[in-house]
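ok so I'm stuck.
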Amino acid sequence: MTQPAADFDLVRRAIAFAARAHRNHFRKDGATPYVSHVFRVCLTVRHLFEVADPRVLAAAVLHDTIEDTTTDYDDLEEQFGPEVAAWVALLSKDKRQEDHAREAAYQAALAAAPWQVQVCKLADVHDNLTDALGTPQQPRALSRAREYLAALRSNLKPEARGPFEIVSRLLEQIGEPGA
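replied:
not stuck anymore, here's the structure
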């Protein structure tokens, strides 16, 4: 069954928006365009987690726009609607807070979030783990992955169980059992 053109258009517009928003950003290696991360997160949601909802795919590709660019909630609401904007807002840390308080608030919000947000975060964790393999960022990625999985486990929505298991297995394969 093919998806309606309007559904594809939402994802296409989100991809174009994210590409523009992250155009001057690079991953921590200083060479990889940052936008490759958000594209991989979207692909993980679609092809590894098998979620086809275009709204979730749009949120996945936009997940870092509020946190890491000049984009705000109103920009996303105007372009993609209140639901996608709300999901992206839940995936965004408040950088005005000190790190420990920011992480605690973020993890609590993820645990309480709808399944769509939890699935996007799990895809983000999956990509960060695989992207950090063998790099100086690996210990931090492993630590954050354990923290996020613990937070999500406390109130994991049924629709996010499959993706949670996939990310948990990845963490075990990397050598961090007991996630």
